[in-house]
């Protein structure tokens, strides 16, 4: 049995694990990614990036590469399949990007390799042991077992997380009572009324009975669609049973009639409406992120995005701890900030499921809610909830309108002309925008990795400086001294 060493072990090469590894490598942390599958599955899985995730990718200069692999720009989001717009938010990306999860994973893995970090595929974690100084991970490959000693271990290994189970971490929640199926199907003839290009969430899905539903999302290739169907009040005896092609074809026939024939079913999978969240996201030197920390029904298209945003929050904090300029108090803020965000997502998903039109009364409630969702203030609230744009982290000490809010990335003026602030975040540093150089030394004492930019003005009155964390949230401000 071989013994190796590294700073951080990340288990799972999904979007969460790859994004976290990217953040750590960018900060100069030695990271090893263990993935049990011998190669990428290529399955499309999740299909969207929300506006806040697009903003975060832009902070690292990654968005152009992702956009190049996307196939759709979707101008609205949805809450319980009721469209909600992003118009009320100050963002450069008031839309969703349609892109398969497999394409996101492929791009992130390529960028990670360019940083000198490769995913160790075919490496299945068996168990781990932690002490006050390190974590020793035992994993299995075709060549036998290996022990890998690290300063930290992060479980990004999905809903059945070996890391979470190894911690004995509670995963409370509800089992749910329904199910859904997703399948990528190639139609011989597209059903009437189906969108040819994915531009809006309108008419994408609809109830087919009191608790049943169906939906079609075009996937960019002629005739290729994501077919979604299910029942929110019943489920198969075995939720892990394979979805057969005959089952999918029968569901297509039931939903769209005899004309709904397909030449190919590329992939199909069953999903549950179970909702669970880890009691804690950290236990000593072991942390959880993504589906290892929370699972929910895919209402609103939030799952992949929630995990990537977990990774952006954790990455810089874990790197600071590894490098020794921050301690447990900073690393503990990962759970303090992200656990409430995950809980809120589970809450809003439950509310969306509550709008299932099961009865005369619930149909009336859904109709009234749809009318309310059309109001600009309500639409902004709901879209901020499902997109992540509405997140504001709690800060302590001085009260200021900027603190805890996200960078909106609107141009700022400098002596040489306007610049886009997101370009200052590409190295993963803290970023200080200030109207006077006097604040640079003060900010540097709080953030050893610091990029500074002198600007002619800031958008807040009586403010000379604002310091942003590497994940794009304001964490410190300096007032303009009184005359």
TrEMBL record:
**Keyword Protease listed:** no
Asked if the Swiss-Prot or TrEMBL record annotates the protein with the keyword Ribosomal protein, the reply is: no
Q: Which UniProt keywords apply?
A: FAD, Flavoprotein
| Any one GO molecular function term | oxidoreductase activity, acting on paired donors, with incorporation or reduction of molecular oxygen, NAD(P)H as one donor, and incorporation of one atom of oxygen
Residue ranges annotated for the FAD-binding domain, each copy included: 6-348
Q: Which metal ions or organic cofactors does this protein require, according to UniProt?
A: FAD
Q: Pfam families, alphabetically? A: FAD_binding_3, Rng_hyd_C
Q: Which PANTHER family match?
A: BINDING MONOOXYGENASE, PUTATIVE (JCVI)-RELATED, TRK SYSTEM POTASSIUM UPTAKE PROTEIN
Quote the protein name from its UniProt record. Answer: FAD-dependent oxidoreductase
UniProt source species:
Amycolatopsis coloradensis
């Amino acid at each position: 049995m071989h013994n190796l060493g590294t700073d951080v072990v990340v288990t799972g090469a999904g979007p969460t694990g790859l994004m976290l590894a990217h953040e750590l490598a960018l900060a100069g942390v030695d990271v090893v990614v263990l993935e049990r599958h011998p190669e990428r599955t290529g399955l499309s899985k999740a299909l969207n990036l929300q506006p806040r995730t697009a903003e975060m990718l832009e902070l690292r200069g990654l968005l152009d590469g992702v956009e190049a692999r996307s196939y759709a720009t979707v101008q609205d989001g949805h809450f319980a399949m009721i469209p909600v717009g992003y118009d009320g938010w100050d963002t450069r990306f008031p839309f969703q990007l349609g892109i398969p999860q497999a394409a996101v994973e492929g791009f992130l893995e390529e960028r990670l390799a360019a940083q000198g970090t490769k995913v160790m595929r075919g490496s299945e974690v068996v168990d781990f042991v932690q002490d006050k100084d390190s974590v020793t991970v035992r994993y299995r490959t075709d060549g036998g077992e290996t022990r890998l000693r690290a300063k930290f271990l992060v479980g990004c290994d999905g809903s059945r997380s070996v890391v979470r189970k190894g911690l004995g971490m509670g995963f409370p929640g509800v089992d749910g009572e329904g199910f859904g199926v997703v399948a990528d199907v190639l139609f011989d003839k597209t059903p009437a009324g189906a969108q040819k290009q994915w531009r809006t969430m309108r008419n994408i899905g609809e109830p087919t009975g009191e608790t049943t539903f169906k939906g079609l999302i075009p996937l960019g290739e002629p005739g290729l669609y994501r077919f979604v169907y299910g029942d929110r009040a019943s489920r198969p005896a075995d939720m892990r049973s394979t979805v057969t092609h005959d089952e999918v074809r029968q569901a297509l026939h039931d939903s769209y009639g005899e004309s709904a024939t397909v030449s190919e079913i590329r992939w199909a999978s069953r999903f549950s409406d179970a909702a669970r969240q880890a009691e804690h996201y950290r236990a000593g030197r072991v942390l959880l992120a993504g589906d290892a920390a929370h699972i929910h029904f895919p209402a609103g298209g939030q799952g992949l995005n929630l995990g990537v945003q977990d990774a952006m929050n954790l990455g810089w904090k874990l790197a600071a701890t590894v490098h020794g300029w921050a301690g447990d108090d900073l690393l503990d803020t990962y759970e303090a900030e992200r656990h409430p965000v995950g809980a809120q997502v589970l809450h809003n998903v439950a509310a969306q499921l509550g709008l299932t039109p099961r009865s005369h009364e619930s149909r009336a409630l859904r109709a009234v809610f749809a009318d309310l969702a059309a109001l600009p203030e309500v639409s902004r609230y709901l879209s901020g909830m499902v997109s992540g744009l509405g997140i504001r982290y709690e800060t302590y000490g001085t009260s200021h309108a900027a603190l805890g809010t996200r960078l909106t990335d609107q141009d700022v003026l400098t002596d040489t002309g306007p610049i886009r602030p997101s370009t200052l975040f590409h190295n993963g540093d803290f970023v200080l925008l200030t109207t006077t150089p006097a604040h640079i030394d003060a900010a540097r004492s709080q953030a050893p990795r610091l990029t500074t930019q002198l600007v002619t003005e800031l958008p807040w009155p009586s403010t000379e400086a604002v310091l942003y964390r590497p994940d794009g949230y304001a964490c410190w401000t300096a007032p303009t001294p009184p005359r």
